[in-house]
Model the fold of this input.
Amino acid sequence: WCISSLVEKSYLVNNIKKEKLSNCALGVDFQKYDSLDKRKNSKEFNILFVGNGNPEKGVHLLLKAMLNINSSDKINLIFNGHITQYFEDIFNEYKDKLMEKGISVLVESGSPLKNYSQASLFVLPSIHESFGLVVLEAMASGLPIVASAIEGCSSVITDMHDGVLFEPKSEESLIKHIEKLLNDINLRNNLANNGL
Done:
């Protein structure tokens, strides 16, 4: 059972015969997201990350990038998930620097539905992602998306159609794409609508 081409390739590399594999991508129940407010009328710009806070998910890239974002908007960075214990000190160091810059950093656990409904933008800066189910959840929530152009994300996102893909591990590319969406409401709306 392969949830993505990345998973299929890993099986093939390990000598599993192709005819024994079945491709079956993951999906989301759109009814679960129908009741969310997709209008995003907040005066604050809320950037959402959903997942475990660790380097594999590229959280350090997002934190570093946010230090270099230039915007007059009030920005909140929301992490919906658990910050891995070995990463907490690094995370908190960046959090303090961002707070000094006027960017709020919130960490919440549990179901991300409330945060999807309050977000202005979804960012998934993963270094490795076998599929990226949270990308489909963000699309179903009516959010524009910025994600790494890695196999797991690029198998779900068509660049500049229903999301924006940035160069993996590139802080500069991530900054450029976040700022582009911060400043272009029409692009945000087009990406979000195309993702539904």
